[in-house]
UniProtKB/TrEMBL annotation:
Annotated transmembrane regions: 34-58, 70-90, 123-152, 164-185, 191-212, 219-242, 248-271
Coiled coil start-end: none
Gene Ontology, cellular component aspect: plasma membrane
Entry protein name: Cation acetate symporter
Subcellular location: Cell membrane
Length: 348
């Protein structure tokens, strides 16, 4: 087939198992700008709350190495996200027939052979396929370990190895059951919805917990429940194909991050302001330890801050540092310490 320049290429319809869910497809067609920014916000803010990403910071021995790792990872991720547009452009050049067949996702495996060809193309294609499977396994295992650790520490009776194994089974059983219930939902669609829930719950908690000293435990819990819960309900409604018929509500539920993330932030702030007496002891010192260079001795600062907060909580006054006035009286002969109230400094 030959198409003239600037002629739209007809695209074949795809099956229900490979397309967007009907609810999200309709909302994207009706409000493409809202859908685009909803997906962008969910992806950007949801990444910081992924448990298998946050847990990597535990492997950094110091704050300096953690910050360097963050900068390096941002650079690598930024370079990675340049590849999808590049793949799309190469696919239109070397495999344009995929648009007609509706199998455009096969371009990832076909391009190495089309661009290079021969043994080199086969080796590159095998490398791409192996890398994809390695990424699937590493992400799945990282998520399983992170969720199992949380269940073992906060939900199950003890942190023993048998309970950790039970947490691992639970961490695997819940997503498997959910995938069986919504088997027709595309993987990319499900990932976007999961990121929306993460952005609405963990993102406000991390941002305010690191930068706002007035955040309280009730505010954090309420914000996570309201923000994450509202996004989760929207996700469930979208998976169930509700509400039908399109409209503004249809788009709001299909792409919830644009309203659920601000709702989570607002709830945390309002509830924290309403419970000012629930700020944990030593919050100011801990935040100073977060943001000040480690060379300033922030360990001592944290200990002093915790002691001051404990005394303040008990209604006691902290002892103010006393300044000693230097004595102007000249020392008497034979008595080098006379006339001074502080330790003598001797210069040799």
């Amino acid at each position: 087939l030959t198409f003239a320049a600037d002629t739209p290429v007809p695209a074949a319809g795809r099956g229900a198992d490979d397309a967007l869910s009907p609810s999200r497809a309709e909302s994207r067609a009706e409000r493409p700008l809202y859908a685009t920014y909803g997906l962008i916000l969910a992806t950007f803010l949801g990444t910081m709350g992924l448990p298998h990403v946050v847990v990597r910071f535990y492997t950094s021995p110091t704050g300096v190495s953690a910050r360097r790792t963050t900068v390096a990872v941002l650079g690598l991720v930024g370079a990675f996200y340049l590849l999808p547009p590049l793949y799309g452009a190469l696919g239109r050049l070397y495999a344009p027939e995929l648009t007609l067949t509706g199998q455009a996702d096969a371009a990832v495996l076909l391009l190495p052979d089309r661009v290079i060809g021969g043994v080199g193309g086969d080796l590159l294609g095998a490398l791409v396929a192996g890398g994809a499977f390695a990424a699937f396994l590493s992400t799945a295992s990282g998520l399983t370990m992170a969720v199992a650790g949380v269940l073992t520490q906060d939900v199950l009776p003890s942190r023993a190895v048998p309970h950790f194994r039970l947490g691992t089974l639970l961490a695997m059983a819940v997503p498997l059951a959910a995938s069986a219930l919504v088997g027709g939902l595309p993987v990319a669609d499900a990932v976007g919805l999961a990121f929306a829930v993460s952005a609405s719950s963990f993102c406000p908690l991390l941002v305010l917990g690191i930068w706002w000293r007035r955040l309280t435990p009730p505010g954090a819990a309420a914000g996570m429940l309201v923000g994450g819960g509202s996004a989760l309900l929207a996700v469930a409604a979208t998976m169930g194909g509700l509400p039908g018929g399109g409209g503004a509500l249809h788009a709001l539920l299909a792409w919830p991050a644009l309203w659920s993330v601000p709702l989570g932030f607002l709830t945390m702030v309002l509830v924290s302001l309403a419970t000012p007496g629930r700020v944990p002891a030593g919050t100011a010192a801990i935040l100073a330890r977060f943001h000040l260079p480690e060379e300033l001795g922030t360990e001592d600062l944290r200990a002093e801050g915790l002691r001051a907060e404990e005394l303040r909580a008990k209604g006691l006054r902290t002892e103010e540092p006393r300044t000693e006035e230097p004595c102007t009286e000249a020392p008497r002969t034979g008595d080098p310490q006379a006339g001074t109230g502080r330790r003598e400094e001797t210069t040799r």
